[in-house]
Design a protein that fits this description.
By secondary structure, this protein is an alpha+beta fold. It has helices at about 5-10, 95-105, 110-125; strands at about 20-25, 35-40, 45-50, 55-60, 65-70, 75-80, 80-90. It comes from Ramphastos sulfuratus.
């Protein structure tokens, strides 16, 4: 994926939807759990050394699977490389569940499906397309996929 490093750093400095110190293991051979500050901003999960302001990495939460592995542990893997897992160990099962839910809601696809659902609900209630006023009601990305025959 191509990205602008300055813009990514700027995004990492934005207020987080969720942030916490957790134990994290990256998918490298011999990798061990290390304490990291993880910060969810829009659809990026940034991770930092606990004593540094700049992130050491970022995961774009698209085309990924978020899985609760154990009581306090969840993982993130990507469709292209399902065997490569980023593992996160939380302080409690409750914290783990909160992270899993927040990460699943962070993807563009989840937000798009939510927009389509609420758009349809508003249209049913009011008889008007709420996106019409913005001139984007006909855009394909805001439409339900055509049924496959």
């Amino acid at each position: 994926m191509r990205y602008n490093e300055r813009e990514l750093l700027s995004l990492a400095r934005q207020p987080a939807e969720k942030a916490a110190e957790v134990l994290m293991r990256v998918p490298k051979k011999g990798s061990v759990l290390k304490k990291r500050l993880v910060k969810l901003v829009v659809n990026f999960l940034f991770y930092f050394r606990t004593d540094e302001a700049e992130p050491i990495g970022a995961l774009l939460l698209e085309h990924c699977r978020i899985t609760k592995e154990e009581e306090n542990v969840f993982s993130i893997s990507f469709v292209e490389e399902p065997e490569r897992k980023y593992c996160f160990e939380c302080a409690s099962e409750e914290q783990c569940q909160e992270w899993v839910e927040a990460l699943k809601r962070a993807s563009y696809e989840f937000m798009r499906r939510s927009l389509i659902f609420y758009r349809n609900e508003i249209q049913k209630m009011t008889g008007k397309d709420p996106l019409e006023q913005f001139g984007i009601s006909g855009e394909a990305r805001f439409q339900l996929a055509a049924p496959k025959h």
